[in-house]
Amino acid sequence: MSLKRLTAATAMFTAIAATAALAEPVEVAGSSTVFPYAMMSGDTFVENHDFGYPNVESIGSSKGLKRFCEGVGADTLDIATASRKIKAKEIKACAENGVTDIIEVRIGYDGLVFASAKKGPSFNFVPADWYQALAARVLVDGALVENPYTSWAEFNADLPDVGIRTFIPASSHGTREVFDQKMMLAGCKATGAYDLLLAENGGDAKAAGKACLITREGKAVEELEVTGTETLDKMRGAKGSIALLGLAFYETNVGELQAATVEGVSPSSDVIANGEYLVSRPLFMYVKKANIALTPGIKEYVQTVLSDELSGPGGFLTIFGLVADPELASTREMVTNEVTMGASS
Fold first, then answer.
1. Average pLDDT in the 9-29 region?
2. Residues forming beta bridges with residue 165, ordered by sequence position
3. Are 109 and 325 in contact (CB under 8 A)?
4. Would you say the pTM of this structure is higher than 0.90?
5. Which of 1, 188, 269, 326 could form a disulfide linkage to 212, CB 3.0–4.6 angstroms apart?
6. 60 Cβ contact list (under 8 Å, min separation 6)
7. Among residues 251, 225, 254, 238, which one has the least CA distance to residue 319?
């Protein structure tokens, strides 16, 4: 190669490097459950690619998806992480702002644990128990009344006779939606309260469902914006309390906590992956396809997250107590081909 061509090539590569250095980082925000995994996946990403470290934020699934749907462009959120599926109304909000091509990436599963102090009594719950404990109104002698219960044993003699004191995630968390649907709503229907609420609301199933999710006031239930360490601190100060925690956090604190069984099943990676455990949920990354061409590294970052090293069985994902997706290979192929929601592969 001539000196002139070598100089030109050097200048070109220098310009490319400078452009890469100035490029905006991949912007990721959403679920507090996915957050630590998304952060640590960034280490492997920067080790194997010439991109900057992704900017990852923990703001909750709903807030992350709201930001994601604000529009398209290098100055908008590239990836939303969520501990639930995106809702139809969120897809509509996205479309109204020009976000029409969304790649839904399932990265694994998480199980929700009903945790209590290790030295306290043990619990085996069914959905009706949590509805009876937390609902603002419950069915007593055929009528809906303001919740009178102060102890778990008052409505289920098989549960310990201890005061009801619970800590649950605020409504902005994907965790809360899984709890609401699989425990509160299911429990509302199991006790017969749903039928009376349906009648009260003129047969409006949506209104009746919302009524099932209204929780009582007082110390029986406290909603927390931040879960994990803050929840554990509150449990230490509230004897006999029970909290809803992610499997990952529970497993790092088994020396202090015990997990209740749900319908006789103890939470573990195996029963979450095979669907045997009732209170489990898939975890997602939602990728803005239009931004792939605008922000260098988006696709490579997601492909890194989906690698065997990180998300495969026994991979890095399991360090956080999360569970590998049996269909991981097909998800990788979908990302490679940039297949969007609703499109055929």
1. 58
2. none
3. yes
4. no
5. 188
6. 30, 31, 32, 172, 173, 174
7. 251
